[in-house]
């Protein structure tokens, strides 16, 4: 039926103004657009209730067998909204997989995101760091919250792939670097944007190259991002990355990008996350030329290579093979169209749209009874999954039944 899925996402606001807008929209009879939900998790490790923000991929409910990588976003009260929109966009344009996004807002940012430090460490005004930030230095406890409580909770309640990405900015980037160097198995990929590498007299600048050289397989990915005017952090990152280039860590794929002074510390998280995710999933999108050829076998080989790289079975997005099938159908290449749609059902057996699309090709080929079987399957699946396209599937099936009934008797 569809070459591309329609937007079905509802947008939620976490500020009072957004709530008022949504209330006004409901009062006017409109439908709010929501991008996620809030929940809380009781943490025994931290001894508190932790708020969470959760974004599920478009079509999550309508595809009950699909599984997704999980993107964990620190400082979620600031970054959840723009990251969720970005991921939806990049997934829609096939540059990334669809992902579950878990936003982790702060309760005590300095406590949770900063690693342990020397008792003699001082801040710029001469005070001891322990006096200036008395709760600081508990990143290891916060990392335990992630690995012992949050990730297991997410993986028990949502359909996840065994692939975790952590995105952090400033102190969040510091936390990401600390996790990678001290417990690298916590995440598969780390995006550290303007990480606070000055912490504890720039300890990580000295220790990270050795720790990253000693990483055991499977490999991890690290993306570092900074603005050229962020001195002295630029100097720290240049020192760190210069050492990484010398050592060439065997089990780390990494890149450092430095903006030419056009942004600032507050604005770079958006572009840093964008570039970081594109780096982590480099090569995810099938080239347009290959898509246009409709060569299903070569496309499947592309996904087989991706599967080896990320360590879990990657299946083509439904819209990809659907688009290939319709290009063949429009070109009157019916066997190729049917083959593409059939492969799509192999990958997405519970998609009403995939069955309805195959029925389009079968009907065009005159295989009406087979087409009707898939029309009816689309209706059944749409009912099970509360698919809003159910009326369209029903109309297609009714029209096909009428066509079959109008055929002359043999």
Automatic annotation (TrEMBL):
Residues 1-27 form the signal peptide. InterPro entries: AB_hydrolase_fold, Esterase-like, Siderophore_Hydrolase_D, TPR-like_helical_dom_sf, TPR_rpt. It comes from the Bacteria. This is Uncharacterized protein. The keyword Acetylation does not apply. It comes from Corallococcus aberystwythensis. Keywords: Hydrolase, Signal, TPR repeat. It holds the Pfam family Esterase. Belongs to the esterase D family. GO terms for molecular function: hydrolase activity, acting on ester bonds. TPR repeats lie at residues 318-351. The keyword Signal applies.
């Amino acid at each position: 039926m569809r070459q591309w899925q329609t937007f079905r996402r509802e947008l939620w606001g976490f500020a009072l103004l957004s709530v008022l807008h949504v209330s006004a929209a409901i009062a006017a009879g409109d439908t709010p657009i929501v991008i996620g939900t809030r929940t809380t998790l009781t943490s025994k490790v931290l001894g508190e209730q932790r708020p969470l923000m959760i974004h599920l991929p478009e079509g999550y409910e309508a595809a009950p067998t699909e599984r997704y990588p999980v993107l964990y976003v620190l400082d979620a009260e600031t970054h959840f909204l723009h990251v969720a929109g970005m991921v939806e966009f990049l997934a829609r344009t096939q540059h990334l997989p669809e992902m579950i996004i878990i936003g982790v807002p702060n309760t005590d940012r300095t406590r949770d995101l900063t690693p342990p430090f020397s008792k003699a460490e001082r801040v710029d005004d001469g005070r001891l760091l322990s006096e200036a930030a008395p709760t600081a230095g508990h990143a290891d406890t916060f990392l335990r919250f992630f690995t012992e409580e949050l990730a297991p909770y997410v993986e028990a309640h949502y359909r996840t792939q065994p692939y975790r990405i952590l995105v952090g900015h400033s102190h969040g980037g510091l936390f990401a670097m600390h996790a990678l160097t001290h417990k690298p198995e916590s995440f598969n990929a780390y995006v550290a944007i303007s990480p606070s590498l000055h912490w504890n007299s720039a300890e990580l600048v000295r220790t990270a190259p050795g720790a990253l050289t000693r990483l055991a397989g499977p490999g991890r990915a690290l993306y570092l991002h900074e603005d050229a005017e962020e001195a002295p952090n630029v100097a720290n990152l240049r020192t760190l990355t210069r050492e990484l280039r010398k050592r060439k860590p065997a089990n780390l794929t990494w890149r450092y990008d430095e903006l030419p002074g056009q942004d600032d510390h507050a604005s770079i998280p958006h572009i840093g996350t964008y570039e970081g995710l594109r780096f982590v999933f480099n090569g995810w999108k099938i080239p347009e030329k290959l898509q246009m050829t409709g060569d299903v076998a070569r496309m499947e080989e592309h996904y087989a290579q991706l599967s080896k790289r990320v360590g879990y079975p990657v299946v083509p997005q439904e819209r990809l093979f659907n688009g290939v099938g319709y290009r063949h159908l429009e070109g009157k290449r019916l066997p190729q169209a049917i083959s593409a749609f059939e492969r799509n059902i192999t990958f997405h057996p519970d998609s009403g749209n995939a069955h309805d699309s195959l029925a389009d090709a079968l009907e065009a080929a005159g295989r009406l009874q087979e087409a009707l079987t898939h029309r009816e399957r689309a209706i059944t699946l749409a009912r099970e999954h509360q698919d809003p396209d159910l009326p369209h599937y029903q109309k297609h099936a009714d029209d096909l039944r009428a066509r079959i009934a109008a055929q002359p008797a043999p």
